[in-house]
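Handoff note, outgoing to incoming analyst
You'll be picking up this chain. Sequence as last confirmed:
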Amino acid sequence: MTTTTGTTGKPGRRVLRLALQALGFVIGLLMLGWCVRAALSPENREQLAKLGEATPGQIALLLGLSAGTLYLNGLLFWVTLRPVRRMPAVDHVAINALCTFLAFLPFKLGAVLRVAINNRRDGVPILTIGAWYGVMFAIMLATYLPAMGASVWRAGVDGLWWAGCLGGSAALLAAAVAAARPFAGPRGLERLHRLIDGSRLPLVGRLARTDHFGRLHTAADMMAAPGHMLGAGLMRLVDLGVMSARFVVAGSIVGVAFGWEEAVLAASAYYILGMVSPFGMLGAREAGTAWMLGAVGLTSAAGQSAEEVARSLTVLTLFITGTESVVLLAGAAAGTVWLRPDRLLRRAPR
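Most recent structure output, in case you need it:
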């Protein structure tokens, strides 16, 4: 008797994944609809009226800040990969603009296209891309966690806040470099092989000598470059400052007087939720940020109660998303022109 489990299992799982992604996207749209409904509620009429009073300068500043964070994130991809693969910085900025816009959609289209472009157009192996993204995630944690911790600790931006934020980030980045340096490069790989051989696991030893493992090992080469790690860490902190500034500016428009410590927490939640959402960032960031900050009882620098702030958060996050979407659409169009659609997925020479 024969069985078709093996032949039908993969298509079945593929259909299930697509169905889950579609369901997640619908849930995201429902969350976005909830945000819109909450923003249009009678309690938020005052904040909605204030949106119409925003000056051209305030709108231009929000658009400029969104463009700044888009540019900085492109440079972050560039500087992190540079120790193992040199590519024009403008290419990374263009790819980031296009893929960030597509991150609004389900099926992780932005992430899938980014991997496809880096692999087929730029010739970066898939496992090297995985190592690259892993290093970028580590850098994000090394910078965001101290900034968020200092904001909760100090409840205000003062000298100790700066010491905790910058000192904590520098310590974590230095620890990452120190841990990676003994295992970077050909000698580091040999040292790693000896350690693995000492474990007396022959299968692991053989796997460690494959080309696949060598591509994953590039993570150590990236993390062992102190100048690049420091540069990426500084860019990530500047980017967090730019994103926080959006909440300060948008808050001043809708009547929520955010201080920098509140803005750092809001911007961190907004960014992380959009990044980790498996179904696209549309709806997840807006509803998630409003819910999380309301749940922790975030107050404003002007003494507004947590209830007053929570009531205004949906208007605030939707306003930021609206101005950001204008920048992302323009950036995606410019990035596509720069990358040239006919070359996007053309396989690069290895």
